[in-house]
Backbone:
């Protein structure tokens, strides 16, 4: 069954089988997205880019409508010369072809560079942060006279929010730098929607400031839902990010009065392509799931597991409890934080899966693959017990939290 058809079938099941008073939905809705003229009015504030400007863009694992923004900047004559587009992949590894899909307004003379976190010949060492992160970054970040970053801002389960400095660190950083920074995700203070006092977030910005004067970098920070843009902030990197962060909390954040018994999460594109990215939907809403509850992850995962570092940890342990016990901040290896978070959820909840991954893969990740008939029986049982159900329609983007008095 195709993903769209599966989603429709499940939503129909819920409406038929479940008492509406016990269902909460995180459906993203907006009375008004920005019009073309409104977007252009904001982009007019960008200073015209000079020759040889480097424009840092997201890779294909992000939903940022990069091509739309570039098209408008061309129309407004903000990009009068050929530029270098630098794809900030972090530790991801898209090919030039998938990177080029982000750009539909290509001009003669433009260049496309795809970051490779393992090519240290293209990186410059700029210093060490107070938390002992050795900062290696792409040479162009240090040498480019003019830089513009284009990014989207959403809740992030250990960095607080995406966007901002993430175009540079980890976007254009060496693997060693990303690994040393991401070990801080093992700390309890590194939480979704939290920036102040978040050690990983603070380390990212400190690392960025070692690369160059961030106030000299122009940026476009946006809140979007697919190709639709809800909010735009332009200006210096920190200032524009702070404005967009507040808008992201309002748009993607859902406050609740109490926890729920069960969660069904439809992972939204492009995060649904791999299990590595799909985990974000689990992390974004797990705080509102009761202990002993159920989490159903629905993600096609047509590109498979994705970055397999975290998945390899599962192969070494026969239970979530043994995994949690062995992984630690002091002995951190890249991917440990994702495996650790996964194990913590699997230890206190039953995790089900619907998608294209095999039964063997799913069992390795402490989950159980189920059918539509199996889910029908679950819904009937939960409804009879009058248990609450959260339907996360835009999994991986929306974030739920219990509001404190």
Residues:
């Amino acid at each position: 069954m195709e993903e769209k058809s599966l989603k429709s079938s499940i939503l129909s099941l819920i409406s038929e089988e479940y008492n509406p008073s016990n269902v909460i939905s995180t459906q993203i809705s907006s009375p008004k997205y920005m019009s073309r003229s409104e977007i252009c009015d904001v982009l007019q504030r960008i200073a015209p880019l000079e020759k040889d400007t480097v424009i840092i863009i997201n890779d294909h694992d992000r939903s940022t409508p990069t091509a739309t923004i570039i098209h408008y900047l061309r129309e407004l004559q903000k990009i009068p010369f050929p530029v270098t587009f630098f794809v900030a992949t972090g530790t991801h590894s898209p090919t030039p072809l998938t990177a080029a899909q982000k750009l539909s307004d290509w001009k003669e003379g433009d260049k496309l560079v795809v970051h490779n976190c393992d090519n240290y010949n293209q990186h410059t060492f700029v210093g060490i942060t107070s938390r002992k992160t050795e900062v290696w970054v792409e040479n162009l970040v240090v040498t480019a006279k003019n830089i513009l970053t284009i990014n989207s801002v959403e809740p992030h389960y250990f960095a607080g929010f995406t966007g901002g400095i993430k175009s540079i660190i980890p976007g254009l950083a060496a693997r060693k730098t990303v690994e040393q920074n991401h070990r801080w995700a093992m700390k309890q203070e590194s939480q979704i929607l939290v920036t102040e006092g978040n050690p990983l977030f603070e380390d990212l910005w400190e690392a960025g400031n070692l690369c160059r004067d961030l106030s000299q970098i122009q940026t476009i920070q946006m809140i979007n839902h697919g190709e639709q843009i809800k909010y735009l902030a332009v200006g210096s990197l920190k200032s524009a990010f702070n404005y967009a962060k507040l808008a992201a909390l309002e748009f993607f954040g859902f406050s609740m009065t109490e926890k729920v018994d069960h969660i069904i999460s439809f992972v939204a594109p492009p995060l649904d392509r791999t299990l590595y990215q799909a985990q974000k939907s689990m992390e974004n809403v797990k705080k509102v799931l009761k202990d002993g509850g159920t989490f159903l992850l629905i993600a096609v995962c047509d590109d498979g597991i994705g970055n397999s570092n975290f998945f390899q940890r599962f192969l070494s342990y026969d239970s979530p409890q043994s995994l949690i016990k062995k992984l630690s901040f002091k002995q951190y290896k890249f991917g440990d934080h994702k495996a650790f978070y996964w194990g913590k959820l699997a230890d206190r909840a039953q995790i089900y899966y619907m998608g294209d991954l095999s039964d063997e893969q799913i069992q390795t990740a402490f989950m159980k693959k189920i059918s539509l008939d199996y889910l029908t029986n679950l819904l009937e049982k939960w409804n009879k017990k009058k248990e609450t159900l959260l339907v996360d329609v835009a999994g991986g983007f929306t974030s739920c939290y219990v509001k404190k008095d």
In short: Residues 67 and 104 are 6 Å apart (CA to CA). The chain has two domains: 3-27+257-402, 36-250.
